[in-house]
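Input record (one chain):
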Amino acid sequence: MFIGNGDLKRKTRNTKRGTEKHKFMAKNITGLGRGLGALIDTENISTGGSSSINEVEMNLIFANPHQPRTHFDEEALAELATSIRELGVISPITLRKNDNGTYLIIAGERRFRASKLVGLQTIPAYVKTAADEQVMEMALIENIQREDLNAIEIALTFYRLMEEYKLTQERLSERVGKKRTTIANYLRLLRLPAEIQMGIKDRKIDMGHARAILGINDPAAQLHLYEAILRDDYSVRKVEELVRQYIENGALDLKPKQEGNPVVKLKEFDELKSRLSELFGTKVQFTCNPDGKGKISIPFGNDEELARVMELFDKI
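The corresponding structure, as predicted from the sequence alone:
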């Protein structure tokens, strides 16, 4: 395939921007503490030459059966595939080489799946020697450090780590570099009714709302408050206030919000949301209450998608 000078310059700029972005993120991301770097000894990575990265044939790679993330959004994968088609795989995946010459994915299954959609024959990868239990632990740690995981997925992963490896909260805290109280707060979410857990998983409410709801011990009252949050778009501060009132009075005062004059029509919201989603190639979230307060969120699932969004902002 012929690549003109203009294409070469754009690729060079994209590579440089991606490199600078990774340096910035490496310095600033706190994640969940130590990260995969503390679990994977990069000095022992097997390579085929002087480079620390191999180009591994796609047909030799297989998914990890113990992958904590079981659902991969098809639209998000298609968006990532578009990014890979344009920019290539910026971040190598991590593999474990099996005795029969095949490879098992430790980290980077989304990139692998998206690369298959594009039709790549090989993919850049770090190759690691690891026992089965180490592969599972690395996969769990990698997933809880993903910024796009919701609070319930993180809580379930913490729980699974503790169950699989008989870890106390203190020991798990050391493993992932987070305070024990933070781990305890995530695990408490699993005590909520299933409907509320699904609401957290679907991002209908955030962890701040959920932690406030936990101040109520009665599951029926918890569900009643959850439904009010969805109906009236309560802020976390408002929910905390209602919980305090419940503790003092033994009842929830859930008066419906007074209808005000909408700042803009819902149809206009939908049109703007659609245009922004088309522009950024992702599901832009647009919320606004009758008081005119709201936010616009541009989600991204990984470094490649973030680089693409940043490039669009540069053009704008």
